[in-house]
Specification:
The protein has helices at residues 5-10, 22-31, 49-58, 69-81, 119-127, 150-155, 167-176, 189-209, 216-232, 234-237, and strands at residues 39-43, 61-66, 88-92, 104-110, 130-143, 179-186, 238-247. By secondary structure, it is of the alpha/beta class. The protein has one domain (5-143, 163-189, 239-247): Rossmann fold (3-Layer(aba) Sandwich). It has a seven-stranded mixed beta sheet with strand order 3-2-1-4-5-7-6, sandwiched between helices. The longest helix has 21 residues, at 189-209. The structure holds S-adenosyl-L-homocysteine.
Length: 248
């Protein structure tokens, strides 16, 4: 079981698989006023940067679940490197339907809400692992600028305009689900550059090392087109944020 191999190639050098920077991830950890020993569940934990750095900086404990074997290995190595391997564990698995045995203080899904069919389903899924009064974290894109057409939205790699909401509507949607938005940290275009542009050098190096791989053609095509596509679409139109929610 794994995610499509193309992502394990293009994001193999990423510590954070989203437009949030290490600084903003630290800001978010501080903003949540995490207490030592707080339990955090992270569905789609990627290479584990959030859990590992929060374990180091705030003494949290946590479990991450991710379907990429590569990212999960990287997360375990990061935990060793930061000296927090006794506080956090990473499970290689499909997170769909995952509910923790013991209730957690923070239940997160940062940039992987397809795991439960979208934002609403993911909030519902995370709520099943959450202690009363706990915090849900959702990381999700929103439209900074509404695309004029579905074609422009597809240029942002969305299925269409309807895939995402503008920020006020995104925030209102959490209210409709019965949640207060109690914090948020938004990415900016520099953060988007770190996430997207970092893939280009990774792709180039991978191509140089793997010219005969069956995915070489696809990676070559992406490297050729991605910088312009990204600059013309995603960078301009798409915002991204992590939203902290508490049940009303
Ligand atoms: N939250 C991490 C990773 C976000 S990228 C970060 O911010 O760095 C999305 C992640 O979801 C990837 O690591 C991918 O491997 C994982 N993923 C995709 N489908 C999944 C599934 N069904 N179950 C668990 N993880 C999944």
């Amino acid at each position: 079981m794994d995610i499509p191999r193309i992502f394990n190639i293009t994001e193999s050098a990423h510590r954070i698989h989203n437009p949030i920077t290490p600084e903003k991830l630290a800001t978010l950890g501080a903003a949540l006023r995490l207490k030592p020993g707080a339990r955090v569940l992270d569905l789609g934990s990627g290479s584990g940067e959030m859990l590992c750095t929060w374990a180091r900086d705030h003494g949290i404990t946590g479990t991450g679940i991710d379907m990429s074997a590569l990212f999960t290995r990287q997360a375990r190595r990061r935990a060793e490197d930061l000296g927090v391997a006794h506080q956090v564990s990473f499970i290689h698995d499909d997170a769909a339907g995952h509910v923790s045995d013991r209730k957690v203080d923070v239940a997160a899904c940062v940039g992987a809400t397809w795991i439960a069919g979208g934002v609403d389903g993911t909030v519902e899924l995370l709520a099943r692992s959450l202690r009363p009064g706990g915090i849900i974290l959702i990381g999700e894109p929103y439209w900074r600028r509404l695309p004029p057409t579905d074609e422009v939205a597809r240029g942002c790699l969305a299925g269409g305009i309807a895939d995402f909401l503008p920020l006020p509507e995104r925030l209102a949607s959490f209210g409709h689900l019965g949640y207060d938005v109690v914090e948020m940290v938004l990415a900016d275009q520099d953060g988007w550059d770190r996430y997207e542009a970092a893939k280009w050098l990774t792709m180039r190096r991978w191509l140089d090392a793997n010219p005969d791989d069956e995915l070489a053609g696809e990676v070559r095509a992406r490297l050729t087109t991605e910088p312009v596509r990204y600059a013309a679409h995603t960078r301009d139109y798409l915002g991204w944020g992590v939203f902290a929610l508490m049940k009303r």
